[in-house]
Hints:
This protein folds into two domains: 8-61, no CATH class; 68-242, no CATH class. The chain has helices spanning 8-17, 33-43, 51-61, 68-75, 83-93, 100-105, 126-132, 138-147, 157-165, 172-199, 205-222, 230-236, 238-242; strands at 19-20, 23-24. It has 245 residues and is mainly alpha-helical. It is built from 13 helices and two strands; from the N terminus they run H-E-E-H-H-H-H-H-H-H-H-H-H-H-H. The site of zinc ion (ZN) has 7 residues, from loops.
Amino acid sequence: MLVDREGLWYRVLVARYGEEGGVLKDGGRRASGWWRDLQRVRDGGGGVDGEWFSSCVSKVLGNGGNSTVDEASNLVWHKNVPLKVSILAWRLLRNRLPTKINLAVRGIMVQDAHLCVSGCGMVETVQHLFVSCPIFRNLWQYVRAWIGVSGVDPFDVVDHFVQFSYLLGHAAKKRSFMQLLWLACVWVLWTERNNRQFNNTENTIYQLFVQVQNHSFWWLKAANVVHELGVHNWFACPLPCLGIG
Length: 245
Ligand SMILES: [Zn+2]
């Protein structure tokens, strides 16, 4: 912000505080505490040096680190998955879905209406709905059993996505398929949640699992990734259908 001289923010700050010798003025005592702190950071004062921006700020914003969040953010985009599904996952990973607890925090719903739509009696957060709900989490068990892998569900939804994507190992085709399945699962779970909440309809968890099988088949079929064998074999043993089993 302080060094990008073509950027909007720099120009706004020049208009507000003035510029001297190519450097923004600090605004003197009339400037806000926030602005003076920012100046000290830029100038290396206050016990922080020039590294601070790159090592802390860029990490928080996701530009400079290899954190799990960055990894998960990359996994959201998949060439065989509809964009609306990736966007849902993107919002999910940033806790930007209108879950009941998020709405309650913003004062949109009354506090006692924030319970999980499954009837489990717990608060509906993102982590709860997609990972730890004692009802909905069974979907992950069904999918793992279908693929023939075992695993536990990490509590954190970001960790869950990354770990699930690599359950078959790091080979690109295998990771790509697991990534697609995770995206299919969260799409099906969110759709079910909305149907239960707004349409008063309900599927069993096994029916949700079949939806995941169907979505994954048709997404891959549309891209000619699933070659032979047909949908019945897909339901029985998907890995050989993809040539990765
Ligand atoms: Zn629940």
